[in-house]
Structures are given as structure tokens and as C-alpha cells.
Amino acid sequence: MSILSQKTLNKKFTFSGVGLHSGKVSDVTILPSEPNTGIIIKRTDINKNNIIVPSIFNVSEANFCTTVSNEHGVKVSTIEHLMAALFIKGIDNAIIEIKGDEIPILDGSSKEFVKKIEKAGIKESKSPIKIIKINKPVQIKDGLKEMSILPSKINLEIDFEINFNNSLIGQQRNKINIYEDDLSEIINSRTFCLYEDVEKLKKMNLAKGGSLDNAIVVKENKVLNNGGLRNQKEFVNHKILDCIGDLFLTGYKTIGKVKSVQGGHKLTNQLLRKVFSNKENYSLIEIKDNKVPNELIKTQYLKSTA
Question: Which residues pair with 25 in a beta bridge?
Fold first, then answer.
């Protein structure tokens, strides 16, 4: 199966679960879709004005999760783990039908989403994938938080660093090549929080559906979850997972080098908006011929669609 051809699901699949922040149960069906239609979200509990395009310009909230809305105020939140799973498995086109306003958190990672995609199967089309290639460095800062994206010849690299005032989490950093590395640990890494922040989140009307079944909770120097961590860098790896999901809101595969220090959903969205604010920052391209990834650097095999 060529990584350079657009893909969708071979058949639909369904799942249900509680929302991390709302605490409400939502029913979700993911269906195959035609080439060049992208990822579309449809709220099936609403009869009209119920279509939402998960794009960077439709992000309406990005503090503790990524929420997308349409012009009528219809929204769906916590989309990042599902979007990351679709990106990692190469799904370019799909319809996400949801009865509710928050994607279920399941186990807090993308593991269950990936399993369901693999079980449903992947269908390849004859249409070429579309790529956004970064042409110029773009950077954004917010106090101690910093994020940038730089040009790359053929890859998407994410270099992520977190710093927590907690002896167990502390400073963690990981660098991943999304198109070449084994992403198993990224896929399996769960969302997390500090024990002392749980009540604060609930007072903010958040984390109503949170539990040790869907989030890592750290109290001082101890992980409260049975079995502990799934991998040594699970904290920063989950941040990378979030970043992958948020990057997919461009609607394209990305060629570039992302570096983040203390970043998150909001900073990623601000960075991408800055990228798209100037057409000199990027090129939108599609593959003309079915070539191996390294051929991306040979412009005779690329056709500009910008």
C-alpha cells in the first residue's frame, strides 16, 4: 500500500465512551469517505447546521483540549487523540458522526482508536496525498512557552520538551520522526495530570469524566494508576501525540521540523495560524507520480497547488 495515495476506511466502525471533561457518554461512528473530502465531523444529535470541519481556523477553545466549532456555534471537543490516530494510520478522508459534543476519551491515549482503524481496514485510492511543506521558519512565544516550525526536506520531526515542578515528571524531552520511527509508544501514551490539580479542574467544570482508567494521575513522586507508566517518557510522549492530532488540523500531511518547549494545544494552533498568515511560509503540494518518500525532495515529482 503506497503512503503517497489518499486513504479512507475499508468499512465503518462504532464506539461509545465518556468524555474526559463533560463526563457525558457519546456514541461515535467513523465512516469511509471519498478522496479529497478530508475529515468531516457531523453531530447526529442535531438536525441542522451540524457539520464541523476540523481545521485550525475552526478551533474555538484550546486550553485543556482541542475544540472545533462551526459558524453556528455547534462544537465538538477533545478531538486531538482521534485526529492523531487518523493521521498516524494515514486516513485522509473520513466522516466522524457523533451523538454528543465530546469525543470519548477511552483509555486516554490513541491506542483504542488505532486498533479500531486497523480492524476496520484501510482502503487506498488513486488520488495523491496533499502535503504542506514549510518554506520559512515560523516561531511563537508566550512567556516560558515557545514553539517553532522549520523547513525539512522530506520528514515531519517533532522535538518536544516539558518541564514540571514535580519530582517524578520533571523535565522530559523526546524527538520523533513521524514518518520513519516506530510510534507505538506515542500512540499508547495517556493524558496526565497532577493529583493536586484534579479538584481545580473540576471547579472549572472540567475533568468530570476523568478517572484512573483514562488518565495518569501523579501524586508527589508516585503514579497512582495500577501498573504505573506504559513507557519511560509517557508524559512527553503524550504531548507529542496531542501535537500530531493538532497538526492534522491543517488538513494535510506536513513536511517540517517542529520544536516545542512547554507547548500545548493553544500554542500549536497559534503557530499554525501564523504559518498560514503568509503564503511565503509554506507550499501546498501533491504527488504527481507514485514515488518513494525520498523522491519528495525532487521537485519534478511535485506539483504546486498553492
Answer: 18
Question: pLDDT per residue over 61-106, tens digit each?
Answer: 999 999 999 999 999 999 999 999 999 999 999 999 999 999 999 9
Longest dimension (CA), the chain: 57
β-bridge pairing 59-61 and 51-52 = unpaired
The pTM score is: 0.93
Band the pLDDT of 306: cuts 50, 70, 90.
Answer: very low
Residue entry with cell 485543556: 64
Q: Judging by DSSP bridges, how do beta strands 75-76 and 302-304 pair with one another? A: unpaired
Q: What is the CATH number of domain 5-128?
A: 3.30.230.20
DSSP H stretches of helix in the chain:
80-88, 111-120, 184-188, 198-203, 234-247, 265-276
Let me know if domain 131-304 sits in CATH 3.30.1700.10: yes
Domain range list for the chain: 5-128, 131-304
Query: What does the DSSP assignment read for 257-291?
Result: EEEEES--HHHHHHHHHHHHT-GGGEEEEEESS--
- C-beta separation of 238 from 190 below 8 A: yes
Q: What is the DSSP letter of 77?
A: B
Residues known to be catalytic: 265
- Please state the three-class secondary structure of 186-233 as a single string: HHHCCCEEEHHHHHHHHHCCCCCCCCCCCCEEEECCEECCCCCCCCCC
The per-residue pLDDT for range 164-189, each reduced to its tens digit, is 999 999 999 999 999 999 999 999 99
The single residue listed with the C-alpha cell 503517497 is 4
